[in-house]
Amino acid sequence: MKAALVAALAVLSTAACNKDDTHSGGAPPPPPPPMTSGSAHADLCADGGGTDSDAISAPFFTRSPAGAGYCLDPQTEVKTYGDKGKLTMDEVCTTAFDGECEVYKRFGLDRVVALRYVDGTGAPNSVEVNLSRFATVDGAYAMFTKRVVADGDPAKTTVKALAAGAAGATSSSNAYVWRGQYLAELTFVTEDTKMTPQQMAQANETATGAIAKDIGSKLPGSTDLPPSAAALPAAQRIPLGISYHPKDALGLTGVGPLAVGYYADGQKRWRDVSIVRASADDAKDAMRAFKLRPGAIPYKGIGDEAVWVVLQEAPDRAKAEYIVARKGTTVAAVGDEELVLDPSVPSDKQAPLKLTKDEKVAKISAWLK
């Protein structure tokens, strides 16, 4: 890799972090290999740029997306992995998602396409794109929220919402688009050592943002959120403040798909948890995971059944008190935001950061109505 690119990417790596590193689930996956020498020339886009030779993904990629000023690089081969791809899923682990492949596989990754857009002005810039397909919509959306929220606090993120696909987000050097079974991850790369972080952020917003929107408009699948995520209240929810879990969450096993919403009102922080099932019996099974927690206390007057329960996501994390209730096919919960709580500080001293019991009851009662 050229020394210039290494220097530029070193700056990008500090700007690309989309959340507090203390809680981060990891930096975005590395882009495909850097541009070959001589690839960043204006004449590459003179005839509209290259084409996607992969029949499955070709409908999703415009040769020259409107407003981007970039085109598909005609000198870079499109790489495909997994189902009907030229390369195997094992190879995607070493070339596209180095060090994080198991996270993708856990969410059901079955196909990846990697390609590049180049700057049509001749500047040594590119936008690298990894398009991942998952076996389920739940898996794709979970990976999107993992990229945007991970294990961090969305109130501290530098990522902003992007109107692309069903859900989108952008940072100073990346963009993410989710729709249906697909997740597109875009990374702005430059060999210009004189470009400042501010200039890179602006170039990323213009080029990567336009390409992301174009891809999001063409991906197949519904733009509706999964039912558990769609059921979360919108009022006072932090922007991009949803974390989605296909199976396990909150220190519980087998309760997914489950959506966690992050909320704030002044100094007070809390979480709403949503589980929507196809039948009341399925919802009862999910509710049972809360009812069987040690110390769970039944509570009357909310929904069909309700309990107070204390959850702890990990031994080194703070304990959080929740009111959990089921009404028909929905299990809802309102609890403390453990990310802002210090397990070494007495609970009463952290009261200003938490909802009172009455406030939790009022919120979940209003929600289930």
Descriptive report:
The protein is α+β, with helices and mostly antiparallel strands and 369 residues long. The chain has two domains: 3-218, no CATH class; 227-368, Protein Transport Mog1p, Chain A (3-Layer(aba) Sandwich). Helix content is 24%, strand content 27%. The protein has eight helices and 15 strands. It has helices at 3-15, 89-95, 101-106, 137-148, 197-218, 227-230, 280-291, 357-368; strands at 70-72, 79-82, 109-119, 125-134, 160-161, 167-170, 174-179, 182-190, 237-245, 258-265, 268-276, 297-298, 305-311, 320-327, 330-336. The strands form two sheets. Strands 1, 2, 3, 4, 5, 6, 7 and 8 form an eight-stranded antiparallel beta sheet that branches. Strands 9-10-11-15-14-13-12 form a seven-stranded antiparallel beta sheet. A hairpin with a 6-residue loop joins strand 12 and strand 13. Mean pLDDT is 88; it is low at 1-27 and 30-40.
